[in-house]
Amino acid sequence: MLTALALLVGALLALGVAALALARSAAGAKTVHGACVGAGAVLVLGGLAGLSGGATALDLPFGPPWGAMRLALDPLAAWFLLPLGIVAGCASLFALGGIHGPVPARLLLPWPIFLAGMLLTVLAADGFTLLLGFEAMSLASWALVAHDTAEAENRRAARIYLGFAGFGGLTLVLALGLSAGGAGDVAFAALREAPPDGWRAAAVFALVLAGAGSKAGLFPLHVWLPLAHPAAPSHVSAAMSGAMTKVALYVLVRFAFDLMGAAQPLWLGMPLIALGAASAVIGALRAALEEDAKTLLACSTVENVGLIAIGLGLALAFRGADLPALAALATAAALLHALNHAVFKTLLFLAAGEVLHGALSRRLDRLGGLIHRMPWTAWAALAGAGAAAALPPLSGFASEWLLLQALLAAWRVGDLAFQIGVAATAALAALAAALAAAAMVRFWGLVFLGRPRSPRAAGAEESGGAARIALLVPAGLTVLLGLLPGVMLDLAEPALRQLSGVAAPRAGFLAVGAADGGARYWPLAAALLLAAAVGAALWAVRRRAPPGIARGPTWDCGFIAAPAHLPFGDPATQPSAAGFAQPLRRMLGDSLLAAREHVTMPPPGSTAPARLDAGFRDPALAALEGPLPRWRDAVAAQAERLRDLSIRQCLGLSFGAVVLMLALLAWLEAR
Amino acid sequence: MSFGQLGYDVAHLLGGGVLLLSFVLLYQRRIGAVINAFAMQGALLALAAAWAAHAQGVAGLYLTAMLTMAAKGVLIPLALHATVRRLDLHRTVETALGIGPSLVAGVGLVALAILVALPATEGARALAREDLALALSVVLLGMLMMITRRNAISQVIGLLSLENGLILAAIGVAGMPLVVELSTAALVLMIAVVAAVFAFQIRERFDTLDTASLEEHRGERR
């Protein structure tokens, strides 16, 4: 199977090259995306095979000058192939459905390379291959983000994204170098033999956290996500959110759980837990405030990555405290949520893409009432939004419930500071889940319910065919994964055993649970109860309703009838995106997001309207765009002064450097 | 071969002489005397190479000795004298760092070279170790001369004496291929030619050989 996957990497790269020629015609573009759908299917099969079989390794016959490139497929990598395959397949299928003519090569060419980079990262078994895949993934996705250079906003997003991509790669290079040490062997087997300890372990972990965390979207390096996702085409946003952040998390897991050895101190998990909690709250809050559908979904990705990070951090801490059963529980929550999030976020991004295609806008204030014009999209998006809002029996609930169980069991770690921190984290995670639910209600309600807010939205059209299938597959999977989390945990069992040493506590096919005697969640039973309650309510309403159903106009809160030139009603009589977000902005935005509100009253006697300006800024982005460029400019100005040195001073610099090195050498020898 | 044996003592004496002449180069106040001191350094280096050829029994080193004597001992000094005469230079050396401080810095550099070279070469032959320390000192003193003198001719001499240090290191190590020495020598000769042409150009344009006069003509200055 590993050989087939290695060949798939090569085939995808070749497809990327061939895309140059195929981009000339619609049929060629369809071929490329069709092949990518097939690649996604192969990836899922490879993941299943890797989880059922043992670990395999493969040395490629070529590589860098110091040795062959190594690939390996162990259960951990195989588990991450599942979200990768599902997302790649669905996104490619969606792109396939959206082709109505020649696709520009700059949009078509990077897509297979992007997929190949992600696959190579997951399969890598030495540092060089890992970095190669990671960088290919970064650069190809940058090319896709930067495809539309007409708008200044997109150029800015691409620039910031490129900066983050370079930063992530750089920190991973440093992390690998630091963990390889003096020997310089970056093969994973060699790194496992000599795991870093003491300050080196801390430095490696911090570097990996910065590198993989910035790619995954962990606070405070999450700021590129809400910028880059709206700039990219919808299927690319889906893959970046669904798959790329998971690959980054995979890199984090690979380092933290595997390459850094099994014996780690308790505190190693704490930064991950803290950053995860911060990401979850900031992401969910921003998702509840943003007015652009894809930005909103990107912020929701930050929240979910934060939740996964909490799970991983807990697992690390439990391992350090020698509580393998709890570590398995936390790992199970994290891995399951990674898969679930990949599926439902892909679904939501593709639905946003379909809405953008049908109603020509991403802005919530220009949409509305789309459930009538785009019923398939609306119902599929409802499944995704329900999962993102962690509603039972959908997939998001199962994994977030497991995460909460792990958080609630964390008091078994004896350290008091850790207990207090985890208690706070549990509160923050619950807050994030509630905020995410509010964000999803706002998203789905504003886009699909109510009246259209623009003529475009009123005349929206749904596309059928491949695009519809691309929405229905992840919607079905979202329901299925929600109903059968126990099966998925059984499937993940080898990966959990690899990460935590023991299997996750089993509660049968139909349930998941923390431990023997602990809480249990039966999704099928919950679904049946919910269906019974909804059915009873429906039955009661129907029974008490008078016979004959008449459709009337939507009640618009007592406003007077709209004038004739507004056939869809006065937009001002519907809640706007900003208005919907106002309570949360006032409650939490002030302190967390520097939200501001300013009323400009006209001078007495003037007939001008009063103005209310409201908005917020992400403090991380403000820091990134404020002091950082200033420091960079100051450093550059200092460095510029070197150019004005005379020849003698230049010689003097190198002379001084030589003398300094020699002095260092003499000092080292004297010790 | 160790202390007290003739081969060792002579090699040590010659190497020490080369280093001493590096200090003489730093000490001279007149440009003609600097060139003469450089010529003497070249001649001593040639002797050291010849002695190494005799002691190690390597015929190739005689060639090195002859080349060094011809180029460093005779031709380059003559050319430099001619240049000075032709350009009608000030016969004084213009220093950026005073003579006294340069000498103090030079002593410090020799101490540093010994501190570095002796522990690093532990286990090697005594002669090679001493030789390496001496050579490193000569290299560092050549660099020091390049940065503490304003005059282009003095800077070129600093560079050439730096190369002397490299050759001194090369002849001290048994088994160094001749090709390496020859190519190094050729490279330095080329640099010397380029530097001479450059010096003429500077002189023609700016009526001085003080390299500081170049600075206000650099285009990238802001």
Automatic annotation (TrEMBL), chain A:
Membrane topology annotation: Multi-pass membrane protein
One Gene Ontology cellular component: plasma membrane
GO molecular function, one term: lyase activity
Localization of this protein: Cell membrane; Membrane
Domain called NADH:quinone oxidoreductase/Mrp antiporter transmembrane: residue spans: 126-410
Keywords annotated in UniProt: Cell membrane, Lyase, Membrane, Oxidoreductase, Signal, Transmembrane, Transmembrane helix
Transmembrane segments: 38-58, 79-99, 111-134, 160-181, 201-224, 236-257, 269-289, 296-318, 338-356, 376-396, 416-449, 469-489, 521-541, 650-668
Signal peptide limits: 1-29
Superkingdom assignment: Bacteria
Protein name: Formate hydrogenlyase subunit 3/multisubunit Na+/H+ antiporter MnhD subunit
Species name: Neoroseomonas alkaliterrae
Automatic annotation (TrEMBL), chain B:
InterPro entries membership: HyfE-like
Enzyme Commission no: 1.-.-.-
Protein's recorded name: Hydrogenase-4 component E
GO MF annotation terms: oxidoreductase activity
Keyword Cell membrane: yes
Species in which this protein is naturally found: Neoroseomonas alkaliterrae
Topology within the bilayer: Multi-pass membrane protein
Secretion signal, residue range per the UniProt entry: none
Transmembrane segments: 6-27, 34-53, 59-84, 96-120, 132-149, 156-176, 182-200
Keywords attached to this entry: Cell membrane, Membrane, Oxidoreductase, Transmembrane, Transmembrane helix
